[in-house]
Amino acid sequence: MIFNNKTTFFAATICFMMLLPSSADAFWLDIIKLVAKGVINIIQDPNGSPANKIQTSTKQIPEPATATEPTEQELLAAFDSLSRYCKKFSEQGFPCGMHSGKSTLSISNAMEIANTRADGELAKAVKQFVNTKATDVLAQFEDNDGNFSESTEFKRTLEVAASQEISGAQTYLTHSRIIKNAKGKDVYEVVVVRVLDAKLFEKALTESAQDKPLNQSIIMETAKSFASKVKALLKKKI
Q: Over the range 98-116, which residues count as b (16 or more CB within 10 Å of their CB) and which as e?
């Protein structure tokens, strides 16, 4: 169902925000969480109207007296903030991949491009993660399971485990809209965020938006999960 009424949109927003931990200073995160849960999908009007078409759930929700719908600028700012946090998390050892794709052919084509690029970014982040955090955690198991750190087999196993992590990645968010190019032709644009664990990623986003440092337990949980996969692969080869 499509609603152009700002009050109806905000009613849906308020209802779903009640279920979401949020900060008064992090409205961008509220927008991101709603998009991630499929509650809203904002699409630019193909006719160039300043009003956005808002796709929301069909669930009937009472309307409040007043409301303000997020503008397209606020939506883009929210994605900009999400992109910065995604990059920051990856640098700190919590892999994340975010990218967009455009196509004049179809929404599915744009989706395929966005997914491929997001997985590429995630692969880079996982590789960086393997080269730093994972080897540190695996060192804790070497006394009991043998010292594999100097072997070619160990390095190969790391690569296989990393590939498994990427293939098992989860999509945290998918957002699509229709825009116009310079020639006035419709262009499908899709943004995709790919992570290893969507729930942990949202938890990290929530805490970071409250000016808290990235929880080290989240990084360690990710590293230990990866370490257990590497250990399992090594034991199969023994």
A: bbbbebeeeeeebbebbbe
Q: How many domains does the chain have?
A: 1
User: What is the average pLDDT score of the chain?
Assistant: 74
Each as own residue / partner, the long-range contacts of residues 17-25 (CB below 8 Å, 24 or more positions apart, any chain) are: 21/206, 22/206, 22/209, 23/209, 23/210, 25/209
* Domain encompassing residue 141: 2-237
* Residue 194 CA from chain centroid, whole number: 5
CA gap 208, 197 in Å, rounded:
16
Query: Within 10 Å of residue 144's Cβ, how many Cβ atoms?
Result: 7
173/78 Cα distance (integer angstroms)? 13
Q: Beta 53-55 vs 2-3: how paired, if at all?
A: antiparallel
Q: What is the pLDDT of residues 24-71, one digit of tens each?
A: 446 889 889 888 887 655 444 444 443 333 333 333 333 433 344 567
Cα distances (angstroms) measured from residue 29 to each of 16, 55, 108, 137, 222: 13, 18, 26, 31, 23
Residue 154 vs residue 34, higher pLDDT: 34
